[in-house]
Prior knowledge:
The protein is an alpha+beta fold. The protein is built from four helices and four strands, in the order βαββαααβ. The protein has a four-stranded antiparallel sheet. α1 (15-31) crosses α4 (82-88).
Amino acid sequence: xxxxxxxxxxxxxxxxxxxxxxxxxxxxxxxxxxxxxxxxxxxxxxxxxxxxxxxxxxxxxxxxxxxxxxxxxxxxxxxxxxxxxxxxxxxxxxxxxxxx
Length: 100
């Protein structure tokens, strides 16, 4: 089992485009033995302390294996819509881990 946390920073004014991409990408996770466990869009009041920029969204999920995760990233249907991600996402931070 592999877990991932993703901090997502989007370009100002591109929220709708980002949501269009997520409508394609999130369902594709299931095709590859994955599951989105949490999708958080924090508000200003959600942060107690920060020393990095505040992300627009935080995703926490899991895949059965590293190979499943790799297969998801190469999904052909998802790749058709990567232009939406490129248009809307400024940067992401991906953290992979395992349960202890």
